[in-house]
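Long-time lurker, first post. I've been practising inverse folding by hand and with some scripts of my own, and I keep getting stuck on stretches where the structure tokens seem ambiguous. Below is the full token string for one chain I'm working on. Before anyone asks, I'm not after the true native sequence, just a reasonable design that respects the backbone. If someone could post their per-position residues I'd love to compare against what I wrote down in my notebook.
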């Protein structure tokens, strides 16, 4: 357990500031300087094979160990001062390692600095990398360099950050002190990099679309509203990436994607954050089948990038991502999990009312969709592609040639959570205009695309090639691949209520 005095209850910032003043008296800059040529702790630990031993001299107690000279830098996360020796653990983003500090080894000047150390301080170490008598990998310090003082206490190893909201609000401490958090966010980066790499290998190009829109289009969601002062015009933060990417299909960018933030002025839950990261991909001359194949590849390559196998734990469940993923139609699953004929709108309406839904004035397919969400989605283990949705609830989707009441759309579900959504894109400008002008019956206008994007329809009239389109919620994907129970665990800075005064 740490004997760091400034982390003892009742002793706080003042003790640390006394040490800061003492460092300055010693001529040490408590905010440090450039520290070149240090190696990551992970790469140092990987050099264990370079440690050698020789027989002790007569009367010796054990073999004498020798190891390579190393230079490391990191934050102190554990500190034990015996008065004559100091043992501490330092951490960087690749791992943790023990440091042995002895007065004889670091000299009077180094020891004077060592006595001012606290949990949370950042230091540099030069020394020999070998093992203690108990076999623990350790850097035996020969030189100590002070790099940064932490002037407020950090949580100790045994208590950590127990309050979940505090962890999310003070993510910097969460990254340092909560096991697995830093690794999760580094894996998030690997997942995103893998997605970009996979798409690049398939000839897709990444673009950056506008985040300020004049019309909230591409999804049924409530936007955040803002105002541009110079142009004196209302604007909204984008709720989707879709319509600008499709304009680029018209313009001849045949394989295009954006991986960026979208904003929806809606509730907060374990699976929703008002600001989140979305991937949208569009492929000219493809369809929703092309997008299913691409989705499988994106996910399986992302799993490989994190160094995991295809069977992963998630909370108290298991997910088997071994391709190919299961596929079933919307109506097949509706019948299986409700016991109703998917075309029996009367029976479906009755079930919806028994559940507690208000069905007045709603299109039968909207009622059916609400029942599907309630009775079917949570029963889907997956990964499963749910295909062929009712066309009336898919205004941006091409219909099946032989069944115009069916849209060529899929959603990917895993343990009841929607992860991906894809279409064979509608490119008929007249039908698109008609669908825009007759929004779904019974929907609250504020929660949908309340205005027609006439410029998008104009773009379609110039000719958009047949195409497949795909959207993947990156935060949800990271949740599933890193065993996170809520979306807040995979967003570095989730939206929180105002902090209590």
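-- Answer (accepted) --
I ran through it position by position. Result:
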């Amino acid at each position: 357990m740490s004997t760091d005095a400034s982390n003892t209850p009742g002793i706080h910032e003042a003790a640390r500031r006394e040490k800061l003043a003492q460092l300055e008296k010693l001529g040490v800059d408590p905010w440090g300087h450039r520290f070149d040529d240090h190696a990551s702790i992970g790469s140092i630990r990987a050099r264990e094979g370079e440690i050698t031993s020789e027989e002790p001299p007569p009367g010796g107690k054990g073999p004498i160990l020798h190891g390579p000279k190393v230079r490391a830098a990191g934050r102190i996360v554990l500190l034990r001062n015996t008065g004559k020796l100091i043992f501490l653990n330092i951490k960087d983003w690749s791992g943790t390692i023990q440091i042995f500090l002895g007065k004889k080894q670091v000299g009077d000047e180094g020891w004077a600095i060592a006595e001012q150390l606290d949990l949370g301080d950042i230091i540099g170490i030069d020394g020999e990398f070998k093992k203690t008598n108990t076999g623990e990998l350790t850097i035996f310090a020969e030189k100590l360099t002070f790099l940064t003082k932490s002037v407020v206490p950090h949580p100790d190893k045994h208590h950590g950050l127990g309050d979940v909201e505090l962890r999310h609000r003070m993510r910097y401490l969460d990254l340092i002190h909560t096991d697995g958090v830093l690794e999760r966010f580094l894996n998030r980066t690997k997942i995103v990099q893998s997605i970009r790499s996979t798409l690049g290998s398939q000839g897709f190009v990444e673009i950056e679309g506008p985040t300020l829109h004049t019309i909230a289009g591409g999804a049924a969601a409530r936007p955040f509203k803002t105002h541009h002062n110079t142009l004196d015009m209302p604007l909204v933060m984008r709720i989707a990436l879709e319509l600008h990417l499709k304009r680029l299909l018209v313009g001849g960018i045949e394989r295009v994607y954006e991986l960026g933030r979208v904003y929806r002025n809606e509730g907060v839950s374990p699976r929703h954050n008002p600001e989140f990261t979305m991937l949208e991909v569009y492929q000219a001359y493809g369809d929703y089948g092309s997008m299913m194949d691409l989705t499988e590849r994106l996910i399986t390559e992302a799993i490989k990038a994190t160094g995991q196998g295809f069977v992963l734990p998630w909370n108290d469940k298991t997910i088997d991502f071994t391709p190919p993923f299961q596929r079933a139609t919307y109506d097949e699953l509706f019948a299986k999990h409700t016991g109703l004929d998917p075309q029996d709108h009367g029976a479906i309406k009755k079930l919806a009312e028994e559940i507690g839904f208000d069905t007045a004035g709603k299109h039968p397919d909207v009622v059916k969709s609400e029942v599907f969400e309630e009775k079917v989605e949570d029963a889907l283990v997956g990964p499963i592609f749910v295909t062929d949705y009712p066309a009336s609830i898919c205004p941006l989707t091409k219909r099946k040639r032989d069944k115009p009441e069916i849209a060529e759309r899929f959603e990917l579900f895993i343990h009841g959570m929607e992860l991906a959504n894809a279409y064979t894109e509608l490119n008929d400008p007249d039908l698109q205009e008609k669908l825009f002008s007759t929004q779904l019956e019974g929907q609250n206008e504020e929660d949908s695309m309340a205005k027609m994007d006439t410029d998008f329809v104009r773009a379609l009239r110039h000719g958009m090639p047949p195409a497949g389109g795909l959207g993947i919620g990156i935060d949800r994907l990271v949740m599933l691949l890193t065993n996170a129970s809520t979306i807040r665990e995979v967003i570095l800075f989730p939206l929180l209520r105002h902090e209590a005064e």
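A couple of notes from the structure itself: DSSP finds 14 helices and 20 strands in the chain. The longest helix spans residues 181-201. Happy to go over any region you disagree with.
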